[in-house]
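REQUEST ID: PR-0412
SUBMITTED BY: lab tech R.K.
PRIORITY: routine
TASK: structure prediction, single protein chain
INPUT:
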Amino acid sequence: MSTISNFSSKFRGGVRPNLFNCSITPPAGVLLSNDFSFHCKGTSMPASSVPAIDVNYLGRQLKVPGDRTYADWTVTVYNDVDMSIRHAFEGWMNLIQNHGANYQALDNPYGQGTVTQISR
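STATUS: complete
OUTPUT:
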């Protein structure tokens, strides 16, 4: 029979639910360091959905899966003292859409990120 003392003696603690390490590989043309990583909190996996599309077939409507869409990824970033993380993101945003001159400098604005949950 299992007891609380048996469970607590085997439990070694979990991961921190509010601290993650994020590493981003930017697209070509974005000048970030090769190891662009930062600590963040309040992140989650973006939800995805596959809506149904109605297709007429022999006088009836047949529902087939449509295109998968992903929700936006939101994250709260812990900034450093010299604001280098903020400046890196602002520079990337400026290449996506320059607000002063109204032009775009990137053909592909998407990078690749890895989020790792930090243990105790």
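NOTES: The two ends are 30 Å apart (CA to CA).
REVIEWED BY: pending
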